[in-house]
Write a structure and sequence with these properties.
alpha+beta, about 650 residues, transcription, Methylamine Dehydrogenase, Chain H, five-stranded antiparallel beta sheet, WD repeat, 3 domains, DNA-binding, RNA_pol_sigma-70-like, single chain, sigma factor activity
């Protein structure tokens, strides 16, 4: 089966007529899977050809190929030159494959060193053919951008001069002249290195159908769950490294970066290779200056203010990337466009005997999206009310209690008077389980969220409106604590609880105050928890060991971990005693979860305008799927004040990750 056959099975039976720039925009703005698949069809053979030439080994080339297109999936919204996507992909492919080659060379060197230490004799290795082929791509990557772009478009991607001119925005005569000059430059450079450019040396290589299908599925999983778990761990690691190193700076600097990386790669291979290994002729180049990657910072943007002043109790980004939800204490749910932040639609969780007879607005209206969208009905979500949980989708709205079953969407839950106040979806082998923690000493979970489910952990939770540590983990596991708040000896323990199978809990012990919030990486390898005295602990999700900690000096009420698994957002409350009664100061921290610093400074605080009363309510944090936007909402339905003293709604505060000025 060819890649074309595979793409037809994926729903792309005919080539997409859109230009490269239009395809890239469609994928970056709306996660159009068809647009990504067409880009894979157009440029996959060229990228795979680079990976095969540089690496030689087919499994290594497969990993590098998948890593390149995962970089595209992650960086597509940032590309500044969409018309030159083929040239950009070629540069990423050269650097990614070179990085893989360095890693492989170092691994082989360690293996040879181990064999030598055991005094075992091995024959010297045969000269690897990929060295010569890699030299060709290293020299091509070093060509000036205007020449490389013409050569990549025509000789690698198979475009005619007219097609290349349309793609690059040049006159056809300019394409012809630059293409001819690029061929002469490349031949001269290769001659100096003792390499002859033969016919077919830069030929595209057909992509194996299974590799193409796995790549598309991995990108789909990346957008749905934040992790590309469907490809090999080696490809995931390589993609992570490449994503951190690839920038969206202008193409001329991209070429310099590719050249310098190629030179560094050559040196690393030589250092990692024993003396009896054959060496390539040393490249005769002058090192070019490498620009620093642009520094970024978090900057507060225009907040989202609601006209009726309703207090916001929950915010959440949909996994499909097409909306985010804002819930209020009135029971209203507003949906907004994540790019323009324009209002899309409103749904109401209120008593309506013709639809949902038992619905009443609860203590806190909380919404959570299922990690994977419905194939036909859009993003699936669950939302709490006083007497249960209602399910719905962004296209059909909230389900009625007596509605006919909808495949892939759970039926509503009836939890009369239990008032759920925390909600998550837990990914598992049999779909996603929805978990609701209530104020009535019951935690409920249903692996397939079927109607009429029974509480799974009755009688264990006694949070009683308190913030609840709750984080989903892969494999139908939940990070939480199932102990009474009043029991100070056991409430300090956190538990990793399986929702299916034997109830073998893993205990995390290390907090010195009651844990109040938790967050976890999608792969479950990094866990973060916070307690009511302001201590943050980062845990190794595999060993259960605490790896780092920091005390923020104020009680934590919510945590969120960005998709990069590094940026950690934390909301703290600091009670103040002032003349005239109690006040509460809010603080927002943005931390590096991998290197917590002592006494970090908050990026925002209520400062000299603390809230009246003692804050004991809810806070909600939500990162966008690309990790560049953070939504923050704080509501306090239990502030000990008179209604006249309640502060005006803060709405939704917005922070954006932007280039540093």
């Amino acid at each position: 089966m060819t890649i074309a056959d595979t793409l037809r099975r994926l729903g792309c039976s005919a080539p997409d007529p859109r230009s490269d720039g239009e395809l890239l925009h469609g994928f970056a703005s709306a996660r159009d899977e068809g647009a990504f698949t067409e880009l894979l069809r157009r440029f996959g053979p060229t990228v795979y050809g680079v990976c095969r030439r540089v690496l030689g080994n087919v499994p290594d080339a497969d990993d590098a190929f998948q890593a390149v297109f995962l970089v595209l999936a992650r960086r597509a919204p940032e590309l500044r030159t969409p018309a030159g996507i083929g040239n950009w992909l070629y540069g990423v492919a050269v650097r990614t494959a070179t990085k893989a080659r360095i890693m492989n060379a170092k691994r082989r060197a360690r293996q040879r060193s181990d064999r030598t230490s055991r005094s075992v004799s091995y024959p010297p290795p045969v000269a690897p053919d990929p060295d010569t082929r890699a030299a060709i791509d290293a020299e091509l990557a070093a060509l000036p951008d205007r020449y490389r772009a013409a050569l990549v478009a025509c000789d690698l991607n198979g475009r005619t001069r007219r097609e290349a001119a349309r793609e690059l925005g040049w006159p056809e005569g300019t394409v012809a002249a630059r293409l001819a000059h690029a061929r002469r430059l490349l031949a001269a450079r290769l001659t100096r290195r003792g390499v002859t450019l033969t016919a077919g040396a830069l030929a595209a290589v057909p992509v194996p159908a299974s590799v193409a299908a796995e790549t598309v599925a991995a990108v789909r999983a990346l957008h749905a769950t934040g992790t590309a778990a469907l490809i090999s761990p080696a490809a995931q690691r390589l993609s992570d490294e490449a994503t951190r190193s690839v920038t969206t700076i202008p193409e001329r600097w991209l070429v310099w970066c590719g050249l310098v990386l190629a030179l560094v790669a050559g040196g690393a291979v030589l250092r990692a290779t024993p003396d009896h290994d054959p060496l390539l002729p040393a490249p005769q180049f002058v090192a070019a200056p490498v620009p620093r990657a642009a520094e970024v910072e978090w900057r507060e943007a225009q907040p989202i203010e609601l006209s009726d002043g309703g207090r916001v109790t929950s915010v959440a980004f949909a996994p499909g990337g097409k909306t985010f939800a804002v819930c209020r204490d009135s029971g209203d749910i507003d949906f907004f466009d994540p790019v323009t932040r324009k209002h899309q639609q409103r749904m109401a969780v209120r008593h309506d005997p013709t639809v949902n007879a038992n619905t009443e607005v609860g203590t806190s209206t909380v919404l959570a999206f299922r990690p994977t969208p419905h194939s036909a009905l859009g993003d699936v979500f669950a939302v709490t009310h006083k007497n249960g949980v209602i399910f719905g989708t962004t296209t059909i709205g909230l389900l009625a209690d007596n509605a006919a079953a909808v495949t892939g969407v759970p039926g509503n839950w009836a939890l009369k008077g239990l008032d759920p106040h925390a909600l998550v979806w837990v990914p598992g082998a049999d779909g996603s389980a929805c978990v609701a923690v209530t104020n009535g000493a019951v935690t409920t979970a249903a692996p397939k969220a079927a109607a009429g489910m029974e509480p799974q952990f009755p009688g264990e939770d006694k949070f009683r409106h308190k913030p609840t540590p709750l984080a989903p983990l892969p494999g139908s596991r939940l990070l939480t604590t199932f102990k009474a708040v009043e029991d100070t000896g056991t409430s300090l323990q956190l538990h990793i609880v399986p929702l299916t199978g034997p109830n073998k809990r893993v205990k995390l012990t290390g907090h010195r105050a009651r844990p109040t919030c938790a967050a976890a990486a999608p792969d479950g390898k990094t866990l973060v928890t916070g307690d009511e005295r302001g201590e943050v602990i980062v845990w190794d999700g595999e060993t259960g060991e605490a790896t780092s900690r920091v005390v923020l000096g104020a009680g934590l009420v919510q945590l969120a971990l960005a998709p990069d698994e590094r940026t950690l957002a934390a909301v703290c409350v600091r009670p103040l005693k002032v003349a005239g009664g109690e006040r509460t100061e809010l603080e927002l921290y943005l931390l590096d979860a991998r290197s917590l610093r002592a006494k970090p400074k908050p990026c925002w605080t209520t400062g000299d305008k603390p809230l009246p009363g003692r804050l004991e309510g809810t806070a909600s944090l939500a990162f966008s799927s690309n990790g560049k936007t953070l939504l923050v909402a704080v509501a306090d339905p239990f502030a000990r004040t008179t209604p006249a003293e309640l502060p005006k709604s803060m709405g939704v505060r917005v922070w954006e990750r932007v280039p540093k000025k």
